[in-house]
Amino acid sequence: MGRNLGACTPQLCKKMGNSYAGQLKTTRFEEVLHNSIEASLRSSNVVPRPVFSQLYLEAEQQLSSLEAGNKVDNEEEEEEEEEAEESSESSSPPIIYQMKPPPEGCCTTDGFCQAGKDLRLVSVSNEQIEVPSGFLLVGAKSPNLPDHLLVCAVDKRFLPDDHGRNALLGFSGNCVGCGKKGFCYFTEFSNHINLKLTTQPKKQKHLKYYLVRNAQGTLTKGSAICWKGAEFRSQQPSSSTCSNTLSQPSENTGSSGTVMEPALATHPIIQAGMHPMAPDHLPTTACLPVYNGKDSSQQHSVKSNVSSVARPSVLGTLTNPGPPKKRHKGWSPESPSSNEAWNLQANPPVTNRNKNDGGGGGVSCLPHAALAGPVSSPVVASGEPVSVPDNLLKIYKAKPVIFKGHGNFPYLCGNLNDVIVSPLLSTCYKNAQSLSRAYEQYGASAIQPISEEMQLLLTVYYLVQLASDQVPLIEDLEQIFMRSWRESHLSEIRQYQQAIPQAFPQVPGPIAPVTSAQLPWLAGLAASSCNDSVHIIECNYSLAEGISEMFKMLIEGKLVKTNYVVIICTCRNRTIDSCIAVTGKYQARILSESMLSPAEYQKEVSYELVTGKVEALGAFFSTLCPDGDVDVLLDKFYQENRAHISSSLSALATKPTAADVTGTAVCTSYNLERHQIRPFQLAVAQKLLSHVCSIADSSTQNLDLGSFEKVDFLICVPPSEVTYQQTLFHLWHSGVLLELGLEKEHLTKQRVEQYVVKLDAEAQTKFKAFLQNSMQNPHTLFVLIHDHAHWDLVSAVHSLYPSQSDPAMGLVDRLLNCREVKEAPNIVTLHVTSFPYALQTQHTRISPYNEIHWPSLYNNGADLYHENKKYYGLSEFIDSTLSGHSLPLLRYDSSFEAMVMALGKRFPRLHSAVIRTFVLVQHYSAAMMAVCGLSQMKNYTTVETLEITQNLINSSRQCPSGHGLMVVLRIPCIPLAAVAYERLNHVRERLALEDHFEIILGNPNSGISIGKHFLEQLKIWQKIEDAEWRPQTYLELEGLPCILIFSGMDPQGESLPRSLRYCDLRLINSSCLVRTALEQELGLAAYFVSSEIPVEKAVAVNDVLESDPEKLSSTDNEDEETVTEGSASENRSPVKRERSGSHDSAASSTSSKTSSTAFCSETSPPMVTAGEVGKSPHQVLSSSTEESVNKTERQRLKVDKDSKLSAKTTQASITSSSPSPFSSSCPSSAPTHSSFVLQASQCSMTKASQQPPIVYLPKLVYDIVTSADSTGLPKSSSLLPYHSVLWASSFRPLMSKMMTCTEQSLYYRQWTVPKPIHMDYNNRNEGRMDTFHPRRLLLSGPPQIGKTGAYLQFLSILSRMLIRLTEVDVYDEEEINTDLKEETEQYRHQPGDAWPDLETFRKMPFDYIIHDPKYEDASLVCSRVQKTSCGDRSANRKQEDLYMRRQTTRMRLSKYAAYNTYHHCEQCHQYMGFNPRYQLYESTLHAFAFSYSMLGEEIQLHFIIPKSKEHHFVFSHPGRQLESMRLPLVTDKSQDYIKSPTFTPTTGRHEHGLFNLYHAMDGANHLHVLVVKEYEMAIYKKYWPNHIMLVLPSIFNSAGVGAAHFLIKELSYHNLELERNRQEELGIKPQDIWPFIVISDDSCVMWNTIEIDCSGDRKSEYTWTERNISLKQILQHIETTPNITHYALIGMRKWSSKTKSGEIKEPFSCCHVHDFVMLNVDLTQNVQYNQNRFMCDDVDFNLRAHSAGLLICRFNRFSVMKKQIAVGGQRSFHIKSKVSDNPVSIAPAQYICAPDSKHTFLAAPAQLLLEKYLQYHSHRFFPLSLKNYSHPVLSVDCYLNLGSQIAVCYVSSRPHSLNISCSDMIFSGLLLYLCDSFVVASFLKKFHFLKGATLCVICQDRNSLRQTVVRLELEDEWQFRLRDEFQTANAKEDKPLFFLTGRHI
Q1: Greater pLDDT, 1325 or 1204
Q2: CB 833 within 8 A of CB 785
């Protein structure tokens, strides 16, 4: 039936919340609902559109493909068909679509948008189109432009995927022409792009193709958009409803109303469906679903509607006023107008039943306790009551469990305590019927859900195939329903597909359904084959008679063999009532016990123990023993053997110590593993770190790593004393506390305890202190680690109820989810668990991106991490049970299970846990007695228990030091564990075994207590001298022979030692079938095995063939047989041992473990040479003796036969063993003939550590764990993941073995929901993302794999990284050429002077020599004749970039540092313009032009000025034109701001440049301008939105730093003039305007000052200290210099750690300044930076400024630190060939070539090629100058770097310039670079040159080269040759530079 809006259930609407308003939920189901409702709200139809049929347009596919018939699916026909459709005749005349008239004055041209921008693909294909994230470019077809596509940007959520699915209804798009954004309706958008349609605009019709860029970057037509159903739109059938063929298409495309099917339109009542269903889950096919005014139902659904008109109405009349057309807030799906429909239910009791039964949502075997109550609610029942017989339990010996099925369930009255009623099954049925809708998107909507009859029949089939010892699982049933539905679904789809070739095929109807009349007969037929284990009762009137009959049969004993009774009543209106009673005693017991919560389970057991109900069990055991009571036997044995045993034991007890003293034989294998980091732990720690970094790097600003200086932490563990001590132990030995600087060297235990909190009642105090600490230390990053995080997920609200027995429950929620933790920006929470499933629900707080899964240790068999240990976890244990492996590690004990089952029937009132515990304790007691010689007791134990006990007792005797094995006996129920402990202790004491093994009661709430004898042994083994020492963790029990009774409902993270050999889990609560519970029990056995088995020295004496068969079956064989996977697998024999079908070890060859050799101390299995180590003894024998396979086979069979024989003779061998159980040797074990003699100790602990433990499970659990589905996934993995979550739906897809951890996480996140008791239950928001906590991580990994070590390592590397983040590599180099400095007669300033004295400073000579270490490879500048040779200044220089070889040191960033874009802290958020609460800062682009005569043209610059910085500028009033940058006055005195504007030229460093000066300026107001190239403007603006940018003209895109300096200076001078003019009008003198600017490098990171103490003799004695200060202090200090306007340049030293006191003795120097310069633009008006320069432009400028008579002052007390930045700057210039794209490096020698040659041209500026060539190869031009420092090269008006081995002498040709005296200097060369008119012939004739000196003239072109030679009369003194002309290797269009060289005559 068509499910329209009115038919939506109230539950659904509640679940939807605000979905109708556009909020999508995650599951597909809710998406469907949301979209359908939204569509109906938007539609103008009177009848709302159907919700669940025709989903996302693709459900139309089935029918439309039929209608298509034999049409060819191609573009042209599709378009023709559309046109045909639009003009086709219809049952009502079409309404012409009225297009809205376009706004006046807008463009209406086809192919252009209304703003007049061209949208045609051919026009915009090469343009760069900005596409917002999440949008795609698509091509739209306009009917008026058939040959063109129009380019549009559309949100991809509204487009379909590759299968034509998942397109959201609606539209969201942008216009790529004018950039207008936010079109929400396709109608509106089609108007804007001038589609000019005559029909209703539809995106499916007009958006045709995806657009993609090809290899050339051109936008081209891509694949067609896959609109399923759009090709052949579904059309409306004509009125011949019942005809067998589909009618010809006829469609009403234009009308907004709908044409109802006549057969239905006449009926006001919408009829119920064909298949009977629960009323709130109506089928989806009964009414013709109306879709967009068209109808796309299928033929058989039409038939079914007509045939079902006679059915009584379930819904009543549908009065629907319809929703408003737009989404108004006032109307919601819950409002009365939409609710009326479902308030008129015709059958109220039915509805109530559904509501009540579904309340539990119970899909697991663990319903909420409230659901398990025995009494049915009166509302649920109907009909006459059924009386439960009084003595039912007494007579039948079991409580039947009745599962409600379909329909009404009768009242029960009478003895209600003897029966249990559960709604689990009916909930499952209902879920299975509702769920086909979630799958509608996968196919035709007409497919029915499974009918009730079919569900019941499938249930009967399932019960029939269950074995007598199996218990039904709801999960199994759900999967059966799912598969059944899917198969019928697929068959229908196939039938559709096969029908396509026919022109008008008949659509097949569904497969004939099971009718209610056939059901009892079919069910009976199915049950007839099962030997009466399933009994069918058919009732004629009501279920009550069937239930009464069942009770009667139970009392009469007629159902003894029957496990399940299915009661069916089919009389009620062709619908069925049913229920299923579980009458099998075993099944009923398991199911009823599974309904108890853990607390109720403990309560029940305690009650049985306290009230003495168990005494009957004890009495029964005592009757079993042939010689009377076991205790009598024990006492008798005790009396008889006391004297004998005490003497032999005293010798034994002293054996280990005596041996130790004499030094004869001590076991060397003992070593307690201390903390060590394994490779994969390090890998996980690094993964954790990278996740934390990615949180910090995301734009959400949730974690500011840059603001933290150190790491602190708190580890929360469950309230288990052992786990707590174990974590303390790991923490202590890891050294993390010292590494994090949290503690000093001498750690005390009390200090370590501060960092670990046990989540018990006292936890609050420690946690509060932690929170307090985090608030007080905002610069510390606190990591809150929640270990074993799946424990206690109870909601804090629920834990307040008194029903909770444990006060600690709900503590995790109260503490870790509190508001303080959630909001603290410096707390990161890390949940660590092996079982993360409960934290991966639909309401989880952890983002899927914040999950870290333990990496796989192996990939395709390759070891990814070089480990010396192999991990054995659940999958390895399961693998061992597969055929072809060595002995299975997982086993069950069939004898034990059989006895438990028999006793269960005998004692029906006792809980099975009590029975199992008593039986197992009895078996252990009997086994101990049997081992001690009471051979008659062997019949009262099982082979498995006997094997465990033998190996335990004998283990310590096989090792000279007494090391033994550990056996873990898991008893979850604490009272039962106490009973078992007392009993076993008593038996051990009676048998005088106290010194052979210890029995330890492991209780989570208390520590470990062991006897004095064993305590002393442990101290000796672990070399502990502390008298007070006690073991506090199980790990410290390494080597102790013991039974550890491990109690507590759940393990809480306790680790077990390597000496663990057996893990006895036979008593775990097997009814608790939940994945987490099962896996954590099995996780106890998880184990690391040394994969390098030590090579023992084995001596081959003779052939082993005659070896005694008894030896092969000795107890210890198994130790060798369970080989370590992968350790020696390549050595294995190809012949595998045959395996018995069962893994019940009683039936397999392992039962041979009880032969008499077990009691011999010296037994040693035959070992072979090293190469054979790792094979099982059987394989060792076969492969070491015979090459031939046949012989090998014989040998193997013989071995197997022997071991089976010995199994049969077990009893005999025990009986015949010697009376004293501890005789020192046994005849059978003495090597009577040649064998392999093993020269090594047989320490059983060593063997135990080389193989994983053996695990014994209950049969029920064993079956679940070892059975797998078709993909190989263990059944346990598909169980409900945790007891406080539910499946979101029964119809979920199956999990697969191939799923990765991430995929499993996503599966659980989609398919599980928390119960109300779960702490995440209330974590729901309408916006899904808000529910994730941004600073919460989840680390999951298998149990015992080393997660603790990994997270401790993570803390360590996180701390190191934070320190590294607060450190920086700065250049640390000594000044160069200090030995060449002229020593002046006297220091002109005193060391303590704060400012230079102008007069004194004028007298100081200028130091021409460069001292900056970055110019170590630059030419020396000579100021006089060098008296001494400078030596080889670059002896070991290579010719590549110096960068990597420069010396750096790591410095901690101070609070006054400059930062790059990675720094965000609270203070500088506003400064940076990244405030998440506001939009990115708006900024405006301003052009600024000024003329400059030297360039001969006007310079056009652009400023980008953020709104927040506009106050620094002056704008014209009417047009807001930029007029000038405000400048302060020289006389201004303010501490609040910096007067000098700072300019920072930068390239390639948008991320790494240090432009954040907020902290460096100490928050002071300052003007900072970034000078960027035009092509980098956008990226700099993105990273620095709140900085002012000066954008250089595009002609400077490939220029060097000289161009930036040149323009900064020229712009600043021009601005100074403008400001002088502006302020002159305000009465201010021009000379009062501040003339200084700062030019700073983008790598200046910190600034230092030297403080000098001159308290001693002023001349010679002073002390100095250096400290970091703010740039604000330095600049304000310099700006207050007296007479500052007389200085042209002011700079400071480059910092070095090696600064000598001599360098700062003189506080001021007159020398070169670099990197950070204050420039007086007024004084330097006539001295320009050379705009062509790439390198050394500052040296060039300094020399020219000095020669112009300007003062250059360096403040030596200030220094700047420069950070090493590996990207950008000069390194961004790459010189490569212009021809090929091949990035081959080109040697500098190729940078120049002869003119007109065929040399490869380079893609680089000519000036750069020139400078690089001269730097490396200038000796070719100046051969005489090489290392000839006394005869430098004369360089006129410029400084060019000629390399470190050539010295230059700079002279200026300007008149009145200051030059050095050159009269006595003879030069070895002359360099004339682009010389201007000031250079004349007479000027050059003043200088003297060596004979053979060389000349190099450099000009812009060949013509000016000749003119220069003529003008300067160079040919008078210099000789030129034609071949001495060169050019830079540039193409003509790149304007190469030309050189001419000549020799001095």
Answers
A1: 1325
A2: no
Judged by DSSP in three states, 1077 sits in helix
Query: Coil, strand, or helix at residue 1664?
Result: strand
**Residue-wise pLDDT tens digits, 970-1012:** 999 999 999 999 999 999 999 999 999 999 999 998 999 999 9
Mark out the alpha helices in 528-629 (DSSP H runs).
543-556, 585-594, 598-610, 615-624
Max mean pLDDT among 30-34, 189-193, 949-953, 1161-1165 falls in: 949-953
Phi, psi (degrees; rounded to nearest 5) at 1231: -70, 95
Distances (CA, A) of 1533 to 513, 1393, 1513, 1635, 1703: 97, 21, 20, 15, 32
- Rounded to whole angstroms, what are the CA distances from 479 to 371, 1290, 1364, 1704? 23, 8, 54, 85
| Token pair in block for residue 580 | 């299923």
Q: Find the DSSP H helices in 1277-1326.
A: 1301-1311
The answer to whether the beta carbons of residues 1453 and 1367 sit under 8 Å apart is yes
| pLDDT band, residue 1281 (cuts 50/70/90) | very high
How many residues are present in the chain?
A: 1945
Q: Is the pLDDT of residue 1156 over 50?
A: no
Ranges of beta strands (E only) in 127-218 are 135-142, 145-155, 173-175, 207-213
Q: How far apart are CA 170 and CA 185, in angstroms?
A: 7
Instruction: Report the SS3 class of residue 374.
Output: coil
**What is the model's pLDDT at position 914?**
95
Is the four-CA dihedral 1514, 1519, 1521, 1524 of positive or negative sign? negative
Question: Tokens representing 1113?
Answer: 């079956």
Residue 714 has pLDDT above 60, yes or no: yes
Q: Which residues contact 1017 (CB under 8 A, 6 or more apart)?
A: 656, 962, 1040
Mean pLDDT of 1666-1674: 96
Assigned token pair, 49: 């559109």
In one-letter notation, the amino acid at residue 528 is S
Query: Which DSSP letter does residue 710 get?
Result: E
Structure tokens at 1706: 């003189």
Tell me what pLDDT residue 346 has: 32
Q: Contact 724/789 with Cβ under 8 angstroms?
A: no
Alpha helices in 183-271 (DSSP H): 186-192, 203-206, 262-265
What mean pLDDT, rounded, does the chain reach?
Answer: 77
- Which pLDDT value is given to residue 163? 75
pLDDT for the residue 317:
33
Instruction: Give the closest residue to 629 by CA, choosing from 915, 987, 900, 944.
Output: 987
Tell me the C-alpha distance between 1943 and 1893, whole Å.
Answer: 6
Q: Is the pLDDT of residue 456 over 50?
A: yes
- Comparing 1393 with 1178, the larger pLDDT belongs to 1393
Entry pTM:
0.66
**Residues 6 or more apart whose Cβ sits within 8 Å of residue 481:** 428, 432, 450, 455, 458, 1290, 1291
In degrees to the nearest 10, what's the CA dihedral of 155, 159, 161, 164? 180
**Helix (H) / strand (E) containing 966:** strand 966-971
With H, G, I as helix, E, B as strand and everything else as coil, classify residue 37. helix
Rounded-to-integer distance, Cα 1309 and Cα 245, Å: 46
Residues with Cβ within 8 Å of 1356's Cβ and at least 6 positions away in sequence, in order, are: 685, 734, 736, 739, 740
Residue 960: CB atoms within 10 Å: 19
Place of tokens 């270990």: 787
Is pLDDT at 1741 greater than 80 in this prediction?
yes
CA 505 to chain centre: 52
Q: Give 768's pLDDT tier (boundaries 50, 70, 90).
A: very high
Q: Are 1765 and 1549 in contact (CB under 8 A)?
A: yes
Cα separation, 104 vs 1416, whole angstroms: 71
SS3 1832: coil
HEC string for 1686-1724: HEEEEEEEECCCCCCHHHHHCCEECECCCCEEEEECCHH
